[in-house]
Write a structure and sequence with these properties.
Blueprint (H helix, E strand, L loop, with lengths): L6 E5 L4 H11 L3 E6 L16 E5 L4 H12 L3 E4 L5 H4 L4 H7 L4 E6 L14 H8 L18 H26 L4 E5 H8 L1 H5 L15 H5 L3 E5 L5 E5 L3 H11 L12 H12 L4 H8 L6 E3 L10 H6 L2 E3 L5 E3 L25 H7 L4 H9 L3 E2 L8
Helix pairs in contact: 1-6, 5-6, 5-7, 6-7
Length: 382
């Protein structure tokens, strides 16, 4: 796989950091997750399948020494802490890159490493709000609606951080030097929305209040419609030729449904039309056409759809939980999902990892007894 032999050290965190580590893992990297010795069990990491876990007390001198040893053997470090936290433990970039000049030190935070908000707590909704993009999401005359925690945490955060890491690794091939990747979820979300920003002066697309534009549910030809069986169809008939085919499949004429006029009147008519057939009946009409109409699937039936089954887009993991497989697909070196592997217990691989660092059985036992490390329930033999 593309990242074979790349070693990643991931400090345990929530959502974006684990997602970043998961991407690297599923494309071939090996990932050691550094958990805390206490308090890590309350939030099991749903993105840690296939990773190894060492539970380490970084507030002790011995703990930081072990961490530095791990860092010296790593290509990438994923740091999800607020600015200054790692420096207080003498584990910042200046500390670790002295002895490992090729280290890619990826810092993944909400507000970035500098700026008046840098040390504030926040979540996806805060970062997306500060990026400006949240102002665009929502129906007319309704308050902005956050798209759960998808855009900032995973798009502008974890995925953007993984991209930054790949850039730094690629550049390292020439310079032989690592560098710091400063991933701000505000910056990343804003960049993710580049097209939205750069098209704002297009009168065809924008210029009206939220929910009154073509792509934000303001038009009748870019929206979802309920079906007879309480399912939904997604209509995205933007281009005139696609819109014509859309109307043709409905048995309607352009005179009855002009594309760029009578949006609300047309929407109400379409709502009534779509409720006359089930989702399956509409699929039979629109599948394999250029009308840009597809079913709205849910997390329970998405893996059974004929297109997704053909591409093996989803796999089943523990407890038959449906999970997407790695994307994009490469012709020779595609990623491999780790979703069928178990989530490691906190510190499950502590003994194993310490042994790889040449600690003796006696030294490991002493580290465990003094609370510097914790060995998880699925313990390795000394």
């Amino acid at each position: 796989m593309p990242l074979k032999n790349i070693k990643v050290l991931e400090l345990a965190g929530l959502a974006p950091g684990p997602f970043c580590g998961m991407i690297l893992l599923e494309f071939g990297a090996s990932v050691i997750k550094v958990d805390k010795t206490v308090g890590s069990h309350a939030h099991p990491d749903a993105l840690s399948h296939g990773k190894r876990s060492i539970a380490l007390n970084l507030k002790t001198a011995e703990g930081t020494k072990i961490f530095k040893q791990l860092s010296d053997q790593s290509d990438v470090l994923i740091d999800p802490y607020r600015p200054g936290v790692m420096e207080k433990m003498t584990l910042g970039p200046q500390d670790l890159m002295k002895t490992n000049k090729g280290l890619v030190y990826a810092r993944l935070t909400g507000f970035g490493q500098k700026g008046p908000y840098a040390h504030m707590a926040g979540h996806d909704i805060n970062y997306l709000g500060l990026s400006g993009l949240l102002s665009l999401f929502g129906r007319y005359n309704e308050k902005p609606i956050p798209p759960v925690n998808l855009a900032a945490d995973f798009g502008g955060g974890g995925l953007m951080c993984a991209f930054g890491i790949m850039l730094a690794l690629f550049e390292r091939n020439k310079s032989k030097l690592g560098q710091v990747v400063d991933t701000s979820m505000v910056d990343g979300s804003a960049y993710l929305g580049s097209w939205l920003y750069r098209t704002q002066k297009s009168p065809l697309l924008w210029g009206n209040p939220r929910g009154k534009n073509i792509l934000d549910t303001g038009s009748h030809f870019y929206d979802t419609y309920e079906t007879k069986d309480k399912q939904y169809m997604c209509v995205g008939a933007l281009e005139p030729q696609f819109y014509e085919e859309f109307l043709e499949k409905l048995g309607l004429s352009i005179d009855e449904f002009p594309q760029f006029d009578q949006f609300e009147e047309s929407r109400l008519k379409l709502e009534n039309i779509f409720k006359q057939k089930t989702q399956a009946e509409w699929c039979a009409i629109f599948d394999n056409t250029n009308a840009c109409v597809t079913p709205l699937l849910n997390l329970n039936n998405v893996s059974n759809h004929v297109h997704n089954k053909e591409r093996n887009t989803f796999i089943s993991g523990e407890d038959d939980l449906i999970m997407p497989k790695p994307a994009p697909q490469l012709s020779r070196t595609s990623g491999k999902s780790k979703g069928r592997e178990t989530i490691p217990d906190t510190g499950e691989h502590t003994t194993e990892i310490l042994a790889e660092l040449n600690f003796t059985s006696e030294e490991i036992a002493n580290l465990i007894s003094t609370g510097i490390v914790t060995q998880g329930m699925k313990s390795s033999k000394l």
